[in-house]
Amino acid sequence: MRLAAGWCLAGAVLLANGAVAQAPADPHLDLEQVDGAAAMAKVKGWNSRSLATLEAQPHFADYQSRALAFLSDTQKIAEPNGVQGGQVLNFWQDAEHPRGLWRTSPLADYTAGKPVWRTLIDVGALGAKDGKKWVFKGATCLSPTYVTCMVALSNGGGDAVVEREFDMTSASFIDGGFTLPEAKTEISWAGPDALYVGTDFGPGSMTDSGYARIVKLWKRGTPLASATLVSEGEKSDVSVGARVMVDGDRTWPLLVRGVDFYHHKLSHIAPDGKLIPSPLPDDADVDDILDGRLIATLKSAWQGHPIGSVVAYSIPDLLAGKTPVIETVFVPTAHQAIEDVGASKSVLWVKLLDDVSGRLLVLRRAPDGRWSGQSVALADKSSVHLNATASDSDTAFVTVEGMLTPPTLYSVTPGAAPVAVQALPAKFDAANMVVEQHFATSKDGTKVPYFLVHRKDLKGPVPAYMHAYGGFELAQTPTYLINEPYRSGPAALYWVEEGNAYVLANIRGGGEYGPAWHDAALREKRQNAYDDLYAVAEDLVKAGITSKGRIAVSGRSNGGLMASVALTQRPDLFGAAIIGSPLTDMKRFSHLLAGASWMGEYGNPDVPADWAFISKYSPYQNIKPGVHYPTPFIYTSTRDDRVHPGHARKFAARLEDDHDPFFYYEAIEGGHAAGVEPKEDALRAALVTTYLNLELPKTPAKK
């Protein structure tokens, strides 16, 4: 590992001869002070310099205004956030309500495509009244009436929230109702007058990851301090929480102790309060409950059930002291991956990927315990989003979209053709555009899929804008080109319209082919994800689509880590890098905000054996003086309380140490999404597009 003279990380450094030397302190630790005067002065200087250059580029104002029109358009899908008690819930943002409206419509009207909306909370008006920059973070409503809810509000968009009890009938907060102060809180209803609460109860009550370590039962009319203990975990755990799942007219409380990001101890909370351990392996994911059966997806092979399978068992049998039979619900093929599972009144809905195209299945259980079902006819090479399922009928709502196909919301019932509830018109002319799926061959021979979008009259090589993620078993699927703020919104559309190529790479570490695809890039195998990325880029070059030095790599969060790794490992291959809300200092990530929760993904940098492989790619430590790096565009948010903004700041500072150019923009609000209102996402789309135009040459370099 080669570093600038006089610079290294604090702590011991292993020398080539095996000796241990003490390293100088990290000179940029002050940038980890989120609101520190020196840090904010540096950020404001970088922001000002970058905005002055990028906003002065040709067409910036047009890009921004068009993006704002896209993102604020009232012609968009009013997707259901839940279907409860005959009502559909929806969170809506537009130009008039940039902070959003939480609202509800009767299910029958909504399904007929003629919703009758009643506003529950105008978030912007509430913020103005309270003197806060409120961001709506969801609500937990009490079954079976769904009249009383706990509403989560974040001041600025971070993960920490205030919880307040709300009455749906009067559309108002309840005076003297349950209220919890700002914290990373998890709550569930334990009955009409009690809550399961995991929150900051004071010193020692939070984990190293910054989440609740203790769960208590809080009864109405008593102070929070007198809540009774349900369970507590270890300080090294990720979190401990109670989750109450609704099954018709019954509820089943669960206690989930997250040991690390991928392993959790699951117990059922019996009526007498005792904890009954689940028979599931620790890495299984709980999906839903149907007719007293817990449904879960396996992340490893178990008791004869293949990896990725969906299984079920009887909760009443377990609580009665019996050993429940483990039923096979669904087994995916080698080309498939389970993404989402949800129960309605009497059937199970399974949303899966098949070579990265979305599919939807509806499954039923026979009296003998066998599960069978059928596929729902939906468009190919599309993303399928299982938005919500109804608890008192067998209705599911799904949105289907493709890169060139605008979203359509369907109501689906078993045995019937999907019914379009709302179909959006095209927002751009795609007649001269095409979407292709290709497969690159990675360094170890693995076939890596990617989607390529370009104009039909493309004559390569042209500049390419390539987005990827590669982590946490999160698949990257094809969505309408204007709809992804995390992928910089309509920047991809602008890029294709202007005759360039846009690429969505499905590298390992994601969930495109299930748990095995994710496991192939875990911990010491992380380089596989980056090798996949380079294989896709090189495949584009080989095919004549683009050429070396004319490819921009893009990613956010873990994808921001990926993009900064690509910058440092392959400056010869890429000509630009869009690095969003990134991790970059992988030596300190586990000590910053929620970072400790991700050690299951990356390893523990404080363990020498783990740091040995992490240090090989950690971007902050691998910037080398004298290397010509592409000029990156780095963005984050001051209020990101998940991935610390210090990662982005310190990476920029390391580039500055060596006089390497960069663009930097740090939004004050937005949390991990780096944006709250459409205007912020529109600004970023314009910045990204002008950055790409500035950094990627339109014609190949002369040989």
UniProtKB/TrEMBL annotation:
It holds the Pfam family Peptidase_S9. The keyword Hydrolase applies. Residues 43-412 form the Peptidase S9A N-terminal domain. Keywords: Hydrolase, Protease, Serine protease, Signal. Residues 1-21 form the signal peptide. SUPFAM superfamilies: alpha/beta-Hydrolases, Peptidase/esterase 'gauge' domain. The keyword NADP does not apply. Residues 494-675 form the Peptidase S9 prolyl oligopeptidase catalytic domain. This is Prolyl oligopeptidase family serine peptidase. The lineage of its organism: Bacteria, Pseudomonadati, Pseudomonadota, Alphaproteobacteria, Sphingomonadales.
